[in-house]
Write a structure and sequence with these properties.
This protein has 80 residues and is mainly β. The protein has a domain at 22-68. It contains one helix and four strands. The protein has a two-stranded antiparallel ribbon with strand order 1-4. A two-stranded antiparallel ribbon has the order 2-3. The longest helix is centred in the middle third of the chain and has 7 residues, at 38-44. The chain is elongated and about 50 Å long.
Length: 80
Amino acid sequence: MSSQFDRTHLASFSSWFPKAPIIYENNQMVLITVRTSPNVLRALVPDLLAVNADSHLSIYVSRLNITHPRPGAVADPWEA
């Protein structure tokens, strides 16, 4: 099955990013980016990570709907 997005996945260009062994359809995704105070951002970010200088915070939420396995896909693409 061909679609307009066939060549848009990183796996199309590099073997370092194999396609997932499953197919998703009708996904819902939201990306929220806000600017907050450095103090709030520091309280939210774990100590091992650095906060960004412009105090932007991005929150990504998604609902990915798995429809079926990709034909010919292996469970672990690194084993192929």
